[in-house]
Amino acid sequence: MGIVGQSTTETHADLRAAVRELCRNFPGSYWRELDAQRAYPEAFVQALTEAGYMATLIPEEYGGAGLGVTEAAAILEEIHASGGNAGACHAQMYIMGTLLRHGSEKQKREYLPKIASGALRLQAFGVSEPNTGSDTTQLKTTAVRQRTVYLINGQKIWISRAEHSDLMLLLARTTPLDQVKKRTEGLSAILVDMKQAVGRGLRIRPIRTMMNHATTELFFDNLEVPVENLVGEEGQGFRYLLDSLNAERILIAAECIGDGRWFLERASSYARERVIFGRPIGQNQGVQFPIARAYANVQAARLMVSRAAGLFDEHKPCGAEANMAKLLAADASWESGNVALQTFGGFGFAEEYDIERKFRETRLYQVAPISTNLILSYLAEHVLGLPRSY
Ligand SMILES: Cc1cc2nc3c(=O)[nH]c(=O)nc-3n(C[C@H](O)[C@H](O)[C@H](O)COP(=O)(O)OP(=O)(O)OC[C@H]3O[C@@H](n4cnc5c(N)ncnc54)[C@H](O)[C@@H]3O)c2cc1C
Question: What is the pTM of this model?
Answer without folding.
Answer: 0.96
